[in-house]
Known about the structure:
The chain contains 14 helices and 13 strands. It is an alpha/beta fold. Helix 12 packs antiparallel against helix 13. It is flat, with a radius of gyration of 29 Å. It starts with 7 loop residues before the first strand and ends in a 6-residue tail after the last helix.
Amino acid sequence: MINEFDTIAAIATAVSNAGIGIIRISGSEAMEILVKIFEPYNKKADVYQLENHRIYYGNIKDGEEVVDECIVLIMKGPHSYTKEDVVEIDCHGGVTVVYKVLNLVLKNGARAAEPGEFTKRAFLNGRIDLSQAEAVMDLIDSKNEMARKNSMTQLKGGLSDKIKQLREEIIYQIAFIESALDDPEHYSLDGFPEKLLEEDKKWITIAKEMLDSYDNGRIIAEGIRTCIVGKPNAGKSSFLNALLGEERAIVTDIAGTTRDTLEESVTIDGITLNIVDTAGIRDTEDIGVERAKKEIESADLILFLMDTSVQISEEDIEILQRIRDKKKIILLNKSDKATEESGFEQSALKEYISEETPVISISAKYGDGIDNFIMELKNMMFHGRIDVNQEVYITNARHKDALAKTYESLECVERSIEAGMPEDFFTIDLMNAYEKLGLIIGESVEEDLVNEIFSKFCTGK
């Protein structure tokens, strides 16, 4: 039976042969457990009297048997990650050693921690709110520098502060309406709708800005779902290798070598591309080709490689028509082989692409034009302006959903005011907005949702 007041323990580092392994203990009995298994180098020292936020050297013992030399870090509540008494044992990192120490801790009174239970306790004990707790996992999972910075901004309260400020302003207006309705002699609502409308429009703008940041935020956190397409032998795999800096895809001079989709991830200047290198699209029932067509539909960005050493073909035209409404970059490959005699006419593309569609000449084989592609990529996906040091980007679908409902409620308030509705109508939608914002930081969230969120964490965190 799981009890939230149990003292818990888990391995907080990767379980492998390493220089160090950390066992984390949290709860009211953390020090009692330490007394049973830790012998300080100074054997006269009383473990109960060891000072807070100090590191001590000694032995972990199972009775008279020395299990390992270690150092112990003591962080007594409330000045710890969980706001409970926390002990961390830093022992040698061998798998056998780490598990031996953990089992010894469990034998002496601790319970094995559930995934994310340390961070869950930090949330339940009020050290961090729910959005900050989720930022911890985002930080662990960050795929690039921009994702790391955005996660740190949220962990420090960048998103929480905005949400809390909005909630404070909204609840103030709700309280004023309720007070005026209950005590009209002392609180007047004359001119109040006009003032509330001004405030409401400000809140709508803030909510909209946060909502609009989700697309960039998702790209920062998850990467850009990128599909490389082109007819057989256009150089798609060579281009992928040029981005990866290594030969992860099979590159040959035989058309149609890539028979299925090949997925890779590469980070360029802080932007992660989740690249799908597809089979060459051609008139065939090949399964790989069918998958390629499906990938085009789900991609955030299409990179269409065209072979400029030959004339534009019907296959090229078919692809252009298929990606007409998709965000795309046209890459004119094999520029090193292109000649006037090749018959490739770039002007023919105008019928199928807009003036805003980037068209870049490259040689995947020699790496020419790759820098121009990267520059265009950043301008296209982030409109040339993204700064994770200055802004908070929404990266969590749960947060986006709550903000969308907040936005809808605030718009309802605006319509009610403009329609001249009674003031008590305003409070219904204002309270809805207040509660939806509370879901983001965990002020009004069900226990099942909390458990679901923390179940996605790694054990030991």
